[in-house]
Write a structure and sequence with these properties.
It is built from one helix and nine strands, in the order E-E-E-H-E-E-E-E-E-E. The chain has one helix spanning 49-55; strands at 14-24, 29-32, 38-41, 63-68, 82-86, 101-105, 111-120, 123-127, 137-148. The strands form two sheets. Strands 1, 2, 3, 4 and 9 form a five-stranded antiparallel beta sheet that branches. A four-stranded antiparallel beta sheet has the order 5-8-7-6, with no helix packed on it. The protein is elongated. The two termini are 22 Å apart.
Length: 156
């Protein structure tokens, strides 16, 4: 991190302009901001809280790389989130294959995506864990600008 004293630090109520790259611990790129970066407000749900928290105290001009353990990022793989369903539940027109993302509705009618893991006979194994569950990550960030937009304390 650079030792910059310009402007307010990243923290609750801050709007942040930044560029980031998210990689697996193996170095494989998972996600990154578009050229020119992105903006978010701390606590708005656009970034998981663990990614926000590692930036707390950073200021415009600062950058850093932060390892994120699987259990702190998107959680560990929960075997209860892997389900086996009959192929007929998907309809005849759906070409099922490993890696296909399918969408279901949960009890609250919210969208619940799952990934087809494998097919066997008339059964389909679907993984409802987040695709990054169980993976250690590296969060690389550069802070362009920070402004204080609220004095509210975020629920961190």
């Amino acid at each position: 991190m650079n030792e910059s004293n310009a402007g307010p630090p990243v923290g609750p109520g801050a709007q942040v302009s930044l560029a980031f790259a998210l990689k697996l611990a193996t170095g494989e790129l998972v996600d990154e901001t578009a050229p020119g970066g992105a903006e978010f407000t701390v606590g708005d749900g656009n970034l998981p809280p663990v990614f926000e928290k590692v930036m707390f105290g950073m200021r415009a001009g600062d950058s850093g790389e932060f390892p994120i353990k699987a259990e702190d990022g998107f959680g560990l793989v929960n075997e209860d989130n892997i389900q086996v369903l009959p192929k007929k539940a998907f309809g005849d027109d759906m070409a099922l294959e490993p890696g296909l993302v399918v969408s279901f509705a949960d009890k609250q009618e919210s969208e619940l995506p799952g990934v087809v893991k494998r097919l066997f006979g008339e059964l389909v194994e679907i993984d409802f864990n987040h695709p990054l569950a169980g993976k250690d990550l590296l969060f690389k960030v550069e802070i362009f600008e920070v402004s204080q937009v609220s004095n509210e304390i975020a629920r961190m």
